[in-house]
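We emphasize that the prediction below concerns an isolated chain of 314 residues; any contacts that depend on oligomerization or on bound cofactors are therefore not represented. The input was used exactly as deposited, without trimming of termini.
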Amino acid sequence: MKTAFLFPGQGSQVVGMGQDVARAIPEAAAAYEKANHVVGFDLASLCFAGPAERLNTTAVSQPAIFVTSIAMLEAMKTLPGARGISPEACAGLSLGEYTALYAAGAIGFEDALRLVQIRGQAMQAAADATAGGMVSLIGLDEGKAQALCQEAAQGEVLQPANFNCPGQIVISGSRSACDRAEALAPRYGAAKAIRLEVAGGFHTPMMAPAAATLDKALSECRFGDPSPIRVMSNVIADYYTDGQAIRHGLVRQLTSPVLWQRCMERLLADGVERFYEIGPGKVLTGLMRRVNRKAHVVNVSDLEGLKAFQGGSD
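Result of the prediction step, given as a token string:
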């Protein structure tokens, strides 16, 4: 059975994440200890005990989610039930793409975590310098979402940022344009327009300063070619071919839409039958069920999920 590993992105963080797994499995605890030395502060404590206000900042949540996902992955590898499970492909939602690259062997832990830390800090700085936001639209297709953005923008930045699953598109841009879009959404047929608790207008040109900072950091980092495990690129919904393509894709990702639905459809078309969401939360599990209800999805987000996996109930 063809398998893919999926890794969550920003917004999946929650105080207490990873604590039960780190207490129970030394390999998971080791990932947090290693991470503390790389980032220069007690990241494990923020994951396990908060406070939520600091954990939820872009600069902290990104490395926190990355490390928690790695801890889950390392814990999974210790279980007898994981023997023989090797993914044909990996994919991650936005930030999760770094975890996917690590899982596929294209980059080492320390290099990936340093990049994630720089990415989070740069995105936080870009968000602090502008007034941006994001709105999740429920019930609109791509055409209507684009038309809504065109009307609401009024010369400001506003564009689709995440194509998550059928009937769920997130738009992103200036705060005032998001306000207008939220008010106009019912007229376009949206069942709901939900303002997201994020720091800025992610995946738009508003993140260009962060992209420039990340580009410099990426130029100093070496990526291996993703082989034999392939990694899906968010911005083209196709597989990375080599290290240069990875660098280019990760920079583009900050200012371009995330084509998650198309990424999942591509994996399904390529014969993937079983998906593991590895990391905090169940966002990707829910999205996959909207993309294809028949897809077999296993969620490994906590100790209970690991135990279920070990017991063969996946």
